[in-house]
Amino acid sequence: MTNYIVGVTGGIGCGKTTLMQCFADLGIQAVDADIVARQVVMPGTPCLQAIQQQFGSDILLQNGELDRAALRQRVFSHSADKAWLEQLLHPAIRQALLQQLAQLTSPYALLVAPLLLENGLNTYVNRVLVIDLPEPLQLQRAMARDNASEQQIRAIMAAQISRQDRLAAADDIVHNDTSIAALQTQVARLHTFYLQQAGLTP
């Protein structure tokens, strides 16, 4: 089991997946909260059954999987539904994250979560690493990646913690506004530091 956990976060489009790959190339394992969030609502899970009971079968796709777009639309405009869904999913996601982290074996591990700070997941990590971009570039990259409108991306950004607050909560910051090579250089430096930190843990 890995004893030293680095929490990774950043706004939409900042490059968390690319950052995770840079660490993976160095042999560091990660748990991705976005993937776990999808796993806890797979067909046959208690969470999906509860969602179906609450919102009806039209919240499912024909193959029995959750229609995430329909659910997002439903809860975005109904605060009571959103609160109900969060109460159901957050504990389930948290439990699954911790179980998966406990199975990792690299010298230290990453917990990657867009809402690391908002959902209090930073209480489970030793350090917080923020990947950062100037907001105009963040907007541009997220729109291109998700093929989404500026309005949609701005709404997601508004729902996340502000860039200023995120940076204030960071122990370490990686700047992703130039090249992959520049990102890899920053990661290599942090990797050495994290290995030292992990070596100091009993």
UniProtKB/TrEMBL annotation:
Keyword Nucleotide-binding recorded: yes
Any Pfam family hit: CoaE
Pathway terms, separated by semicolons: Cofactor biosynthesis; coenzyme A biosynthesis; CoA from (R)-pantothenate: step 5/5
Reactions accelerated catalytically: 3'-dephospho-CoA + ATP = ADP + CoA + H(+)
EC number annotated for this UniProt entry: 2.7.1.24
Intracellular or extracellular location(s): Cytoplasm
Residue ranges of coiled coil: none
Keyword Nucleotide-binding annotated: yes
Binding positions (ATP): 13-18
UniProt family annotation: Belongs to the CoaE family.
Protein name (record): Dephospho-CoA kinase
Organism: Rheinheimera muenzenbergensis
Lineage, broadest ranks: Bacteria, Pseudomonadati, Pseudomonadota, Gammaproteobacteria, Chromatiales
Gene designation per UniProt: coaE
